[in-house]
Amino acid sequence: MSAEILNAQHNDDTFENIWQELKWRGLVHVSTDEAALEKALSEESLTFYTGYDPTAASLHLGHLVQLLVMRRLQLAGHKPLGLVGGFTGLIGDPRQTSERVLNSPEVVAEWVKSLRAQIERFLSFEGENAARMVNNLDWSGQMSALQLLRDVGKHFRVGTMVKKEIVAKRLNSDEGISYTEFSYQILQGLDFLELNRRFGCTLQTGGSDQWGNLTSGTELIRKVEGKSVHAIGTPLITNSDGTKFGKSEGNAIWLNPQMCSPYAFYQFWLNTADADVVDRLKVFTFLTRAEIAEFAEKVEKEPFKREAQKTLAYLVTSLVHGTEATDQAVAASEALFGKGDFAALDEATLESVVAELPSAKLSEDRLDMISVLTELGFAKSNSEARRILKEGGASVNGVKVQGEDAAISKDDLLHGRFAMVRRGKKNQGAVELI
């Protein structure tokens, strides 16, 4: 995220305090003592942390919720600690159904670097409440098994640990749960204790599915240090139809542009349902409640204009990928609807557009339009392709082509590789030269 975008971010000053704004935005599902937490957030500058385990090469949309909660708290004057779990990432928190595949220390170390770079883009590292990055490998990696059992494990009761929701589910499954994953809540509790000792950290935020792990930390600090600290569990975002948010055709929406292109990312948000878009604006943008109320009215009165979806898509894609990549994604989207020029798109954006369309890889001697239309499935036979061309029903890069001998020339190839082909109003595809 650019410094310009960071500097433009503000909390909504019409709320009495940041706690009230977080609740209005639907970002509080569960917490420790609400009155005490609201008071602490209103009266002092807290140090807080959110943990991210490197169990993949990139963060995804679920993590984006946490990143924006961190940023909102920082804007309210609180000090963020971004924890990348170089130690806990070697284990991974328990999954719902089966044991995680344990990745090698070398792979985890690379993923730590990737995630750290992603997290740093969402926070400010300047000023009185500058963010700080930490890695739990720095303390847990130095601790022997005997130290962990004597100094930390003695404070945990097995009866309490097995009641944690995720542990209980796994214990009752055919798969069961290994001691490795069972011990995860001890390690996360240790993180909170260490951050409390080192930096005076008194608040942890995370997803509500992590609540058992969050409270492991608050309880450990209470037992060891005799202090009362806080935790906030954000809701798991779901779509209004009950489907899981952040999935597209079975794949997670990653924040890494190499794993999910800015164009595909933009399209994901653009396709938000009317029933969900207002809630998404609350969670994923810094628009004020007055501005969001205006979009809510537009959704109700003029849903066909999709102004809320366009704004949501532009703002969130800009947050994650920057305005330049977002402008290219918008241009690509408009070009697909005949309102822009494919030639104006950079190669990376065009490549990501092609990946989302029916496409065919053809050699230079097969760039005649009859072959192109049949290979793309726009014509069932050569005779149908000839009829389409005779009637002027096909275009290349937005320019209508006509005649049975029509062909894509080298000059038509965008970036020397691609040609965008349309049949009629609805069939859009692409050809790539091989």
TrEMBL record:
GO molecular function, one term: ATP binding
Localization terms from the record: Cytoplasm
Cited InterPro entries: aa-tRNA-synth_I_CS, aa-tRNA-synth_Ic, Rossmann-like_a/b/a_fold, S4_RNA-bd_sf, SYY-like_C, Tyr-tRNA-ligase, Tyr-tRNA-ligase_bac-type, Tyr-tRNA-ligase_bac_1
Keyword annotations from UniProtKB, A to Z: Aminoacyl-tRNA synthetase, ATP-binding, Cytoplasm, Ligase, Nucleotide-binding, Protein biosynthesis, RNA-binding
Gene that specifies this protein: tyrS
Binding locations of ATP: 247
Domain called Tyrosine--tRNA ligase SYY-like C-terminal: residue spans: 351-427
Pfam families xrefs: SYY_C-terminal, tRNA-synt_1b
Chain positions of motif 'KMSKS' region: 244-248
EC number: 6.1.1.1
Example GO BP: tyrosyl-tRNA aminoacylation
Binding, L-tyrosine: 49, 184, 188
Reactions catalysed: tRNA(Tyr) + L-tyrosine + ATP = L-tyrosyl-tRNA(Tyr) + AMP + diphosphate + H(+)
NCBIfam families associated with the record: tyrS
Motif 'HIGH' region: chain residues: 54-63
Keyword Protein biosynthesis belongs to the record: yes
Protein name: Tyrosine--tRNA ligase
Superkingdom, natural source: Bacteria
One GO CC annotation: cytosol
Species of provenance: Rothia mucilaginosa
UniProt keyword Cytoplasm, yes or no: yes
